[in-house]
């Protein structure tokens, strides 16, 4: 699936929910299924700045596609990063760089997109794209 | 007695909704809300007599100057300072602290010691670290115990003839502990050290008498006491304010200027360079009028009730731990529930219209002491109610359920 297709799938899933409670409950559940980062990568270098909670992200490339793993000490943050990773994992670096992230708004999590929000979603997106840039350079 | 329903009508913001729910504002220790009486003063200033002060011969300038200086006198009376020129207008607590720390640069030498407490707002530790770097003085720290109280016997051991300055907050913002500043001041004076008290968190709840305390410097911000942001004050004993060199150069703070030499203006203008926050100063005075109109004894009695009620209700929740259980504390409750991250609870509470603070509350050393990433902090003011606490408890239980 392309990033856009995955994003549309996520939008459809969230469209089933009636209110914020169901949306957040789902996000919390997604957080529990986050592809976890290996303990050895949970270093200070891999911490994303700008979050009130700690977020670690790691990326590796296989067959020209990037896979992300992550973890956080806060469950809602884990849910948010799980959604992002689902959209961006197993994709070509170039596609990750070109992807937009409007779908976050469309699934009713717009408030988390504010750059001043303490969860650092914007920093997370930036970090995922930085990994994509790094791997893209390797490919060139 | 205090009529909370009548008081709530003074605060327009309390009528708004957040995420479709009535706002419950429990982040008062970060900033307090503003009553209509203060908002009116701000509107009146800009509508009727906005002008620069101390320099114009025209009527508007005179009116603005009078109102600004009247407000200084209100502040003086409120804190019972001996002279109105011992009240320096600043941009707030942080600015006031930096002003004093900077001034001490020229009074300290290598080998001197400064004492701060373990309960400080960490941004307020930085000016002292910088001062120590500049002067070669050493920073010593009064430790705290598990309840969040300072260990005074350790303080006694830190004091000696090298101690030049003691810095302590009157009330801790992270835990609400009321520190025994009377005895801290007395002991510091016994070794000849000056004392600066950070009153940012105490001024909303009690009325300090700087002469009775015999404190050398006392600082606070208007925005925590129903006033606007960006204005505050430094009280300093006259003898100290004379000793301290000016902080910033500029207009207003000079008597005469030539390229050979400038003589500084007298107090308080020596420390008030440039056009100040005129409207803010006037509104600061109005905020004190408002709070004094309710009465600090009434405020304290009512807030203590809220604190007792809130503590009792929270303690019924399984797995909830309160940090800061000092015998003397104000209406601040810092807590965690099990291993749930404070950020998660804060996010869910916000969805239900409840504003609390989560995180380390600019008091990283305190969080390190308890080995936690942060807490959820609910802080009450006299316009909050038991009904709001009930709604908060229901919302909190729901958040815990969702997050467990
Ligand atoms: C104890 C304490 N000191 C200082 C400050 C800083 O005040 P301001 O940001 O108004 O300068 C605060 C505010 O949170 C505080 O709680």
Automatic annotation (TrEMBL), chain A:
Residues 11-129 form the Fe-S metabolism associated domain. Transmembrane segments: none annotated. Coiled coil: none annotated. Belongs to the SufE family. This is Cysteine desulfuration protein SufE.
């Amino acid at each position: 699936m392309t990033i856009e297709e995955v994003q549309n799938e996520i939008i459809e899933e969230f469209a089933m929910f009636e209110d914020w409670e169901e949306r957040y409950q789902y996000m919390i559940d997604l957080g529990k299924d986050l592809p976890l980062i290996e303990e050895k990568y949970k270093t200070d270098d891999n911490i994303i700045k700008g979050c009130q909670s700690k977020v670690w992200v790691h990326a590796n490339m296989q067959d020209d596609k990037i896979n992300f793993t992550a973890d956080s000490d806060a469950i809602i943050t884990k849910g948010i990063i799980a959604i992002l990773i689902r959209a961006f994992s197993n994709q070509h670096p170039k596609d990750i760089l070109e992807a937009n992230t409007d779908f976050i708004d469309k699934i009713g999590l717009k408030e988390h997109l504010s750059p001043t929000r303490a969860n650092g979603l914007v920093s997370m997106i930036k970090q995922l794209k930085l990994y994509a840039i790094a791997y893209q350079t390797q490919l060139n | 007695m205090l009529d909370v329903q009548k008081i709530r009508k003074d605060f327009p913001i309390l009528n708004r909704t957040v995420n479709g729910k009535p706002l419950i504002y429990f982040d008062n220790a970060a900033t307090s809300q503003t009553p209509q009486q203060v908002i009116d003063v701000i509107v009146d200033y800009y509508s009727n007599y906005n002008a620069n002060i101390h320099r114009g011969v025209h009527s508007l300038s005179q009116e603005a100057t009078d109102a600004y200086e009247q407000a200084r006198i209100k502040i003086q009376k409120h804190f019972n300072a001996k002279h109105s020129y011992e009240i320096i207008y600043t941009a707030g607590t942080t600015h006031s602290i930096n002003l004093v720390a900077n001034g001490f640069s020229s009074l300290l030498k290598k080998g001197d010691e400064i004492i701060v407490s373990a309960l400080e707002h960490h941004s307020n530790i930085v000016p002292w670290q910088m001062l120590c770097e500049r002067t070669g003085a050493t920073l010593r720290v009064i430790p705290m115990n598990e309840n969040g109280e300072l260990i005074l016997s350790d303080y006694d051991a830190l004091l000696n003839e090298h101690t030049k300055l003691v810095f302590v907050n009157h009330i801790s913002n992270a835990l609400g502990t009321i520190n025994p500043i009377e005895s801290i001041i007395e002991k510091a004076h016994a070794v000849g050290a000056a004392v600066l008290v950070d009153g940012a968190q105490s001024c909303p709840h009690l009325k300090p008498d700087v002469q009775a305390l015999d404190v050398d410097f006392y600082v606070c911000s208007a925005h925590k006491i129903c006033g606007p942001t960006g204005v505050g004050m430094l009280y300093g004993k006259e003898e100290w304010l004379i000793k301290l060199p000016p902080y910033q150069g500029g207009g207003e703070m000079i008597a005469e200027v030539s390229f050979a030499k400038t003589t500084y203006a007298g107090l308080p203008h020596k420390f008030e360079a440039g056009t100040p926050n005129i409207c803010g100063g006037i509104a600061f005075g109005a905020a004190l009028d408002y709070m004094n109109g309710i009465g600090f004894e009434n405020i304290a009695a009512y807030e203590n009730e809220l604190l007792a009620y809130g503590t009792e209700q929270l303690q019924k929740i399984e797995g909830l731990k309160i940090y800061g259980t000092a015998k003397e504390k104000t209406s601040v409750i810092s807590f965690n529930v099990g291993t749930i991250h404070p950020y998660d609870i804060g996010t869910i509470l916000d969805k239900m219209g409840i504003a609390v603070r989560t995180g380390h509350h600019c008091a990283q050393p305190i969080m390190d002491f308890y080995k936690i990433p942060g807490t959820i902090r609910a802080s009450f003011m006299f316009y909050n109610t038991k009904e709001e606490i009930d709604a908060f408890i229901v919302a909190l239980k729901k958040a815990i359920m969702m997050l467990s």
